[in-house]
Amino acid sequence: MSDAEINELCWLYGDATYLQNEETLQGYYVGPRREMITPWSTNAVEITQNMSLDGILRIEEYFPVSSKEADYDPMLQRMYDGLDQTIFTVNHEPEPIKRVEDLEKFNEEEGLALSPEEMEYLHKIEKQNGRPLTDSEIFGFAQINSEHCRHKIFGGEFVIDGKVMESSLFSLIKKTTKENPGKILSAYKDNVAFAQGPEVEQFAPANQSTSDFFRVKPIESVISLKAETHNFPTTVEPFNGAATGTGGEIRDRMGGGVGSWPIAGTAVYMTAYPRLTEDDGTTPVLRDWEDILPIRQWLYQTPEQILIKASNGASDFGNKFGQPLITGSLLTFEHQENGEKYAYDKVIMLAGGVGYGTKRDCLKGEPQAGNKVVVVGGDNYRIGLGGGSVSSVDTGRYSNGIELNAIQRANPEMQKRAYNLVRALVEEDNNPVVSIHDHGSAGHLNCLSELVEECGGKIDMSQLPIGDKTLSAKEIIANESQERMGLLIDEKHLDHVKKIAERERAPMYVVGETTGDAHFSFVQGDGVKPFDLDVAQMFGHSPKTIMKDETVERKYENVSYSINKVEEYLQRVLQLEAVACKDWLTNKVDRSVTGKVARQQCQGEIQLPLSDCGVVALDYRGHKGIATALGHAPQAGLASPEAGSVLSVAESLTNIVWAPLADGMDSLSLSANWMWPCRSQKGEDARLYSAVKALSDFCCAIGVNVPTGKDSLSLTQQYPNGDKIISPGTVIVTSGGEVSDVRQVVSPVLVNDKNTRLYHIDFSFDEQRLGGSAFAQSLGKIGSDVPTVKEPQYFCDCFDAVQEMIRRGWILAGHDISAGGLITTLLEMTFANAEGGLHINLHDIKGDDVIKKLFAENPGVVIQVADEHKEEVKEFLTENCIGFARIGTPSPDKRTLSIADGDWKTEFDIDAMRETWYKTSYLLDCKQSMNGMAKKRCQNYKKQPIEMKFNADFTGTLQQYGLDADRWKTSTPNTQHPTPKAAIIREKGTNGEREMAYALYLAGFEVKDVMMTDLITGRETLEEVNMIVFCGGFSNSDVLGSAKGWAGAFLYNPKAKQALDRFYAREDTLSLGICNGCQLMVELNLINPEHKHRAHLCHNTSKKFESSFLNLTIPQNNSVMFGSLSGNKLGIWVAHGEGRFYLPEAEDKYNIIAKYNYAEYPGNPNGSDYNVAGICSADGRHLAMMPHLERAIFPWQQAYYPRERRQDEVTPWIEAFVNARKWVESKL
């Protein structure tokens, strides 16, 4: 390497020292396994390439440790005794193609889980083809036809108690859509379901093969719904298992039809008990339910580690890809009774989400011979080999080596690049995609074979990107390297697609074509075919799976209790992970990216995770949207699989009921995901059948379809000592549907007004029962007396009644009754308020058992209604035959929950109960937040309510600023007064560009989309724009430091550097950097180049990603954008991992334009000097800030907004953009 290249690397590595004469670094180091090239390395190498440094193939991080006994993750890392020139050397040659003579032996050695019937079928293929099958063909067949991929049990025949069941499980599920098709346009034939959506505005660049201006056009939309589990990979290696589960589910929505847009995600985690400990190592009081089973010698990770790492993985993928996670759920469970052991030792990790697309594109096209097969995304590595088949058997059955080979590798930034290409193609007037499919289980083989299934195809292996030169043909064909999409493109469109791919830095490879001969082959460069089968042979016609089982009635001891222990019971319930505060999950995941989030978990002035309904807008007009919610009831399902299914649906619907649905329940579709320990013990398969049939019957009765879902039917973990732990049979129901107005979603936070009333509405029409409840679980019981929904039509009537009351504006606040019962619902409604309480009387609720009234989990809701509407509400409910009970009123002057029922009375200190509820979150947060920040958060969260203070003349109207959101309908170019032009600048990994572009557009700018490749190639010079904005996200995944690689792309590419230098040399320009863009501006020293000591942005003090909606104070300042906002206190989103301003000069040396309202964490989320959130150049023109004002310009985007101003069209943040436009206009 030349001295200049070495100097570039030294700069890139943070002014590191070049160890020229060091052959070996002594000591112990922990780093990646030498055979596993990490996503970190992929990004680091690409950074060097983007800096014009050629020839570097791999860069990795190694961390010094004190001894070889230091902890490390053996699934991902290894211990090195010294580092030398051989750390990347892998002494492994590609294995030759094998002709397999002994199928049975190969099946067991490779862990393929092929059944005897499938083995017999493969022998037939051998005879048909007149040759032994290759290892690639057998391995590929096993993946494609695994239970994981082909769902043979759901399509099989069930024989229960000697009687053949009339319908398969698939038929039962499909029956729901057949009887109630609703708005469904695509079901069961794609990786995602589509329903008819409303007409919305598409806001996108006119031409995405080069830099161009954003334009608005109307489109007829479809809404997508999807959920998928990634249980085995998450059990073995939680971070990447959950991350790739999230990524795979996102790709499913990307690959719907001929391409669509994912918009928001959901997540569910279910594990064994984490056995949390206090700071001193002791067990917290009243957590003895964790002793019901002894601690196991966990096969891979402890439950606590899985919870932390899995949620980190799912959060990290969404954060870096740019998908907000807006609702979720958590359950921990263990039980031992009747000689059986149940626990989520084989964990459940569900990733789900909603999205949208165009109606034009919701169905796949018909391939024609000669279509080109295109792969977009990352290279092939020895990743995830056999994941499909290994996922289909009990975890722990095979050798650790086989399970290690199935570990995944997540690179969300690569997937974002692939998505940008797909997004661009779908946004065009003429989408050139014929068909699209994601790479998941079985890699190229499954993806590409499904693309060409109708006509056959030929794949040229020499064109496949190989990241690891030691891969065999089998490994190239079937590895599960993630973040890849397969597309069919007509040849005439290839050049255009390539231009967009190159612009987006999305690796694109033309790897084959369709043939029309119904044959599928992979061909090496030397002409040898390691895979060469008819399509029909590949997908198999093995005999139908027959499931024979007997019904086994299991009884579980009911819970006993005393009315004198209500407070103890409450303290127990509030500490269960399923009931307790989920702040430890929400504080690390982006819930605002896209700028389309209208409802996420955290609510109220104290911002606590209370909302179980997630809502996103479909465009930036803020009216039409999508709601989604979750439901599950596996504890009740153990006692009654039928009730467990019904309660799962009911919970999902009582969670989503708070969003005003366009057509009520008719708007909804469900995804049902089944996780079951099939074939684990007598009666389990019969229980599965009963559960599926019950869900089908209930959904048909209430008129809701189930057009999508997935099954994972090997939920059993085997231990070396012979122990077998069965995970409870579980169905997770995700609901989704169109929202008529995202501004009208009801909050669970109590309005602290004494002139209001609370009403309880029971949806179940059943007696109150404690079986399967959190109450029973906290006392180590399940109970056999579980609730259900007795009358499906009455459930519908209740649902419709709540929807109508929302439409009429009668409901001030509302919350469902589920985990923890009515008492938890009431407490949660008060927790996010700084003041006020509740006075409750249970007399009107039927029954004599106070414990059941408080803790039963019969589906139902609590609504708050203003006194001015109480008579209307009573009359309406009575007319519609809806039973209700008036249960209480707010007590604004007392911070207590007082409850009475006849002669029985009690009172709870709300703040004390909130601390109990928060305790579990704190203990888990201690495992992920460093430097004592978990304790700081626990101490301060309730002391930092959001405060708002606006300018006195702020009206909240677009008219105040002369803005017209519909100007695209009538605007014509004004040659005398040209419209100011701004550009958003993005790099690979940027994910906040669209919301920024729209904020500029709404403020009156014409907005240009500029990718770094436009600047590097010279296609874009910035000469025609007066304002540039560097947008938020994770450029290069923050590898080598946030924005370091982005800065390198400017500094070491002459055309890009010249464009930037010339822009800043002009006096008629403004610039803004948000989040990652702020980090870039500081790294390039664009704010205070006159300072002797440079500012830096460092890792947050907590050493983790911080996501929150919090307060900023705008001090007196001379900024073009913020000057007029001086003195305001405003709410804003933060979402970053490296946002701590290090400011070495005195405070008065900086032009500070925004400060966090509170000095202490979490109000100051990163530990910035002087509480700084943003700084500006001395002349006020160039501004850099970490929080996202572009995600807070509409009231519906804000997680908290003054109730009395809920009719505002815009928030004060729009003024900053208007100020910028007016300043530019003055310079034109």
Report what the structure shows:
It is a single chain. With about 1250 residues, the protein is an alpha+beta fold. Among the domains are: about 5-85, no CATH class; about 265-345 and about 560-620 and about 735-940, Phosphoribosyl-aminoimidazole Synthetase, Chain A, domain 2 (Alpha-Beta Complex), CATH 3.90.650.10; about 940-1225, Rossmann fold (3-Layer(aba) Sandwich). It has 36 helices and 50 strands. The strands form 10 sheets. The chain has a 15-stranded mixed sheet that branches. Helix 28 packs antiparallel against helix 29 (about 935-940). The longest helix is centred in the first third of the chain and has 19 residues, at about 305-320. The chain is globular, with a radius of gyration of 29 Å. The two termini are about 50 Å apart. The model is unreliable at about 385-390 (pLDDT under 50).
Write the layout of secondary structure elements.
Blueprint: H1 3-12, E1 25-32, H2 39-50, E2 63-65, E3 77-83, H3 103-109, H4 116-129, H5 135-144, H6 147-150, E4 157-160, E5 163-164, H7 169-179, E6 184-186, E7 193-205, E8 212-229, H8 231-236, H9 238-254, E9 261-271, H10 303-321, E10 325-332, E11 334-337, E12 340-343, E13 348-358, E14 372-377, H11 387-390, H12 400-405, H13 412-427, E15 433-438, H14 443-451, E16 457-460, H15 473-478, E17 484-489, H16 494-503, E18 508-514, E19 519-523, E20 531-534, H17 535-539, E21 546-549, H18 566-575, H19 583-586, E22 597-599, E23 602-603, E24 608-609, E25 613-617, E26 625-631, H20 634-639, H21 641-656, E27 662-665, E28 668-675, H22 684-702, E29 705-712, E30 716-718, E31 724-726, E32 730-739, E33 756-762, H23 774-778, H24 792-807, E34 811-817, H25 821-831, E35 837-841, H26 850-855, E36 860-866, H27 867-879, E37 885-891, E38 896-901, E39 904-909, H28 910-925, H29 933-940, H30 967-970, E40 981-986, H31 993-1002, E41 1006-1011, H32 1012-1017, E42 1027-1030, H33 1044-1051, H34 1054-1065, E43 1070-1074, H35 1076-1083, E44 1096-1098, E45 1106-1113, ...
Parallel strand pairs: 4-21, 9-10, 16-19, 28-29, 35-38, 40-41, 40-42, 42-43, 43-50
Antiparallel strand pairs: 1-2, 1-3, 4-5, 6-7, 7-8, 8-13, 8-41, 9-13, 11-12, 14-17, 14-18, 15-17, 16-18, 19-20, 22-25, 23-24, 25-26, 26-32, 28-32, 30-31, 33-36, 33-37, 34-36, 35-37, 38-39, 44-47, 45-46, 45-48, 48-49, 49-50
